[in-house]
Amino acid sequence: MKASSLILTSCIGSLSAANLMLDFGPTTVASPYETLSPAHHAGTVISTETSWNTLSSSADRSDLVFSDGSSAVGITLNLGQESTSGNGIISFSTELTKLTLAGTGGGAAGQQSLLGTGSIYGSDSSSTAAGRDGVFGDGSGGAGSAIGMRVDGLAAGSYTIYLMGRNTNSNVGSLPMNLFAAVGADSSTFDFSSLSPTVQSNPGYATASYAGEFTSFTSGDNFVSIDVTVTEGQSLFLVSDGADAAETRGFLNMVQIVEVPEPSTASLALVAGALLLRRRRL
């Protein structure tokens, strides 16, 4: 490759945002599922960025990597849940204990399984898709705990947060999740009781009328995105809380924290990309 092309390629690479991809549950994302995610689908994470952080324990994490595989130096993650179910306060000293949601796809008679050819949850029970397995709160469906996370050390700027929260062991009708994202000072607790949620409706479908709905990412149905702005030193807080009387436990399958480029940076990336494409065609 000529020197000028190398410079342009380097320029584009250096403009890649610092994105974090978090996969909850016991299974590590692997081929061919690394890019099966809302952010990849939206094009806000490029297809060559495939490094996921597997979160299969409640331990605090300081060894995270960005989606391009580089070390996320200075960024830490803490998980927690309500110490008292339904009180609307996440305690980061209350560890998650339900860490092995398998993502069976559900077995309700007459209902379409979440798993299948082309599904965003994967083709079968051996799928390593980020959206298949997960973690959830303590308690029972009707009296369960919300779960949450705190991320410290993010660079100041704007972010789009993509979340998937669903009980993927169930394929019954709608069991929605209330999902929250906010920023604030570092704290050992997070009170979300007065915040307005973004709802993931999690519809189910009768097999007889199923029309491939599980094969596409649909905002509000099987994922949500929330925009936040982080200032220097602020923490990012995320919460999942069951929104139906039959399912009050919070579930998380995956989270993507995607940095929104500054307008000038995005423009430079477009120019560099156009120039590189033109050179390759010549």
Task: Tag the structure with descriptive keywords.
seven-stranded antiparallel beta sheet, Jelly Rolls, 2 domains, alpha+beta, globular, disordered N terminus, five-stranded mixed beta sheet, 17 strands
Written description of the protein model:
- Keywords: Signal.
- Residues 1-17 form the signal peptide.
- With 282 residues, the chain is of the alpha+beta class.
- It folds into two domains: 1-17 and 264-282; 18-260, Sandwich (Jelly Rolls), CATH 2.60.120.430.
- The chain has three helices and 17 strands.
- The protein has a seven-stranded antiparallel sheet with strand order 12-4-3-9-15-11-13, with no helix packed on it.
- Helix 1 runs antiparallel to helix 3 (263-281).
- The model is unreliable at 1-15 and 268-277 (pLDDT under 50).
Give me a quick take on this structure:
With 282 residues, this protein is of the alpha+beta class. It is built from three helices and 17 strands.
Average residue pLDDT:
91
Helicity, in percent? Answer: 10-25%
CATH topology label of the largest domain: Jelly Rolls
Widest sheet: strand order?
12-4-3-9-15-11-13
Question: Which outline best applies?
Answer: globular
Order of helices and strands: HEHEEEEEEEEEEEEEEEEH
Low-confidence stretches: 1-15, 268-277
Please, how many helices?
3
Distance between termini? 13 Å
Sheet/helix structural class: alpha+beta
Largest β-sheet summary: 7 strands, antiparallel
Could you say how many structural domains there are in total? 2
Question: What do we call the CATH homologous superfamily of the largest domain?
Answer: Galactose-binding lectin
